[in-house]
Amino acid sequence: MSTRLGRQSLLNLVGYGVGGAGQLLVVLLTARALPLADAGRVYALISAALIVAAVLRLGTSASAVLFLAREGEPDEETTRRIARMVLLPVAGVSLLVATVGVLVAVAIDSAALAVVALTLPATALVEPLLGISRGTGRMLPTVLADRAGRPLLQVLLLGGAWLAVTLAGGSLTVTAVVACWCAPYLVGAVVAWWSTPALHRLRTWRHGWPRPLPGEAREMVRFSASRSATEIMQMAFARLDVVLVAALAGPEQAALYTVVTRFVVVVQLVQQAIATATEPPLAAAVAAGRRADAAELYRTSTAWIVSIVWPLLLLVLAKPDWWLGVFGPAYAGSFAVVLPLGLAMLVASAVGSAESVLTMAGRSDLVVGTNVVALVTMIGVDLALIPAHGATGAAIGWASAIVIKNVAALVLNTRGPAGHPFSGAWLLAVGLPVVLVVALPGLLGALVPAVADAAELLGLAALAVTYVLARRRLRLDRLVAIPARRRRAAAAAASPDVSSSASPAASPAAADPAVTPDPQEAR
């Protein structure tokens, strides 16, 4: 296996990490700047807006990638022809819904809802616009306008607004915080538009949009319909429970639930970063019938995920107050919410990118089916438990969905070309953090309570040293960059790598939101 895969995975980890850190800071600033109930109102309103935007996108972002990528190097006329089919329906429907939203906001005197409605067209259009740039082979606009740029701009706006009102002796309002969340989508839409020369060089708006080729519009509608259902389902997984908690248990519980579940998003970022880099060579291995290579890719990437994620999850479960207190005293003592999701994410990370592997094997229909079952289960559990148990009930519902999705994909994969994800490296990756992060520090802390925290830190340090010493057995040497003097020899020994690009144009999975949902919008 080429070490280029490791470099791609590491690069994706860094890229997703920047945006993930920005998003985490936005949640942190919101939690610290607003009372619990007001923070819950912000989280619920933003979650509802993102669900509506996912519906309004109509699956067109994936269509833009697919239809442009298959053109090879599309000229400006071709790009505008496909852009017309992608953008006009989304723009028309989103403007209509935004108008209705503004009227409702005026009727109920809600300035925050008015802000969300006014920015809704940009929120809906930014991803299809970025899909056009990705379809023409440019990934940088997606990073600048959305993945990393948007969360960082939200941090700057929210932090600046909080500092300004604090110096003036005031306090932030829900409307101001919502505006700081929503305004970067306007900037992102402008950057995304400008990133495609075929769009911003357009001189004649009336005659500059070529009509679709015969049958092309029908083909896009069919493709977009299936992708739209998948996108909506993925966004429902990510956001619907926040809305349900706010509606059934109140905004305070919604705020608590949103903040306490931040660690899940961090884990999803790690998994998605590695999965994005693994998909192209995995797809190539499956297509060429190289079952051994496909199995090796799956097992190696799973060992990476477990090595990175399990120490974090075990620390989250062992010391929840270490990180919950950062958000404020109102969020401490929420272990009942942390526990089910922590255990569910241990299962999800232990099976690696099971859903992605299943899709690369050509069974995206099975992924959709298991996702439907998981979503229905989550909604049913939420409706049953949230009224009485609030955030804890929502956590149980989401945890149930996570386990169903991932275990089903694991079982279905066992008969596929990549097989199962378990190996000696996987067993070592599981065992080391269990011993060094949980067992030994827990035993020492029980014997000498005064050194419990120090024992945990010592265990983490010992784990880091062990990872360095056992990097080859854990296959971590393939994830980090190898020394220059060894690269040529390693490349000569590696198996053929048909594609090393993690861009959507290179990967069949990148056009399918069921495979690569955006973790930046996970919460």
Automatic annotation (TrEMBL):
Residues 492-523 are annotated as: Disordered. It holds the Pfam family Polysacc_synt. The keyword Transmembrane applies. GO terms for cellular component: plasma membrane. The chain crosses the membrane at residues 12-31, 43-69, 81-105, 111-130, 151-170, 176-196, 297-318, 330-354, 366-386, 392-412, 424-444, 450-470. It is a multi-pass membrane protein. Residues 492-515 have a biased composition (Low complexity). It is found in: Cell membrane. This is Oligosaccharide flippase family protein. It comes from Nocardioides bruguierae.
